[in-house]
Amino acid sequence: xxxxxxxxxxxxxxxxxxxxxxxxxxxxxxxxxxxxxxxxxxxxxxxxxxxxxxxxxxxxxxxxxxxxxxxxxxxxxxxxxxxxxxxxxxxxxxxxxxxxxxxxxxxxxxxxxxxxxxxxxxxxxxxxxxxxxxxxxxxxxxxxxxxxxxxxxxxxxxxxxxxxxxxxxxxxxxxx
Amino acid sequence: xxxxxxxxxxxxxxxxxxxxxxxxxxxxxxxxxxxxxxxxxxxxxxxxxxxxxxxxxxxxxxxxxxxxxxxxxxxxxxxxxxxxxxxxx
Lengths: 176, 89
Prior knowledge:
The structure holds two protein chains of two kinds. Helix content of chain A is 20%, strand content 48%. Chain A is an alpha+beta fold. The longest helix of chain A has 20 residues, at 73-92. By secondary structure, chain B is an all-alpha fold. Chain B has four helices and no strands. The N and C termini of chain B lie far apart (59 Å). Chain A binds chain B through residues 115-116, 130, 132, 134-136, 141, 143, 157-158, 160, 174-176, and chain B through 59-61, 69, 72-73, 76-77, 80, 83-84, 87.
C-alpha cells in the first residue's frame, strides 16, 4: 500500500512537471543553421504534427514531422520539432554540435516569451530584420524579433541579446 | 552690503548656468523624424536616454498601453540604432 502511494505521488509529480527543450545546432564544417521559424502546430489526440522552416547556409528549408505519445501536446510538438530537425541535419552530413537544455518547472507552464535578463541559446531568439551583430559594452550582440500568438492576434516584440562571455548563452538585455 | 549682493547674484547666475537643460518631451512623430547622426551620437543618445528616464515606462511591454508600447518601442529602437550604426572602427 505504501509503495502504491509513493508511486502515485511520483507519477502525479511527473504529470505536473512542465518541461521545455531548448536547443541550437552548429555545424562544425561551417554550415550555418538558423533557428526554427514559421512553426505551425496541429494537434490531434495524442499527436502533434509540425511544419516549420529553417535556414541552412542562407537557404530556406521546409520541414514536416510529427510525434505521438501521452505527454502534454506542447511537449509532443517540441519533440516533433527536435526529431524532424535532427533527422534533416543528419541527412545533410557534416559534424554538428548541438547545445540543448531541458528545463522542467513543476506546477506551472514553461515560460514562452523571452524576458529581459533571461539567458537563452542564440537560436531561441528569432531573427530580426536587422541582421548585423554589433558590440555593446564589449560583448557581441544582435537584435531579435519574437512573435507570440494570443487569442485574437499575433504580437511582435523586438529586442537585443548579447552573448555571455565564454558560454553558448545569450542574455536578453532589452525588449520592447 | 553691495559686494555681498553682487556675490549672491553672481552665485545664483552661476547656478542657473550649471542647471541641465530641460528634457525635450518629443512627440511620437518627432521620434519618427529624429535626425539620427553618428557625428552627434553622444549628445543625441544622452537626449534620448533623458527622455527615456522622463517617460519611465515599465520594462515589461505587456504592461504598457498600446500607445505607450509604440512610443517606448520607437524610443528604445532609436537608442539602439547608434550601437549598430555608429560602431567605432
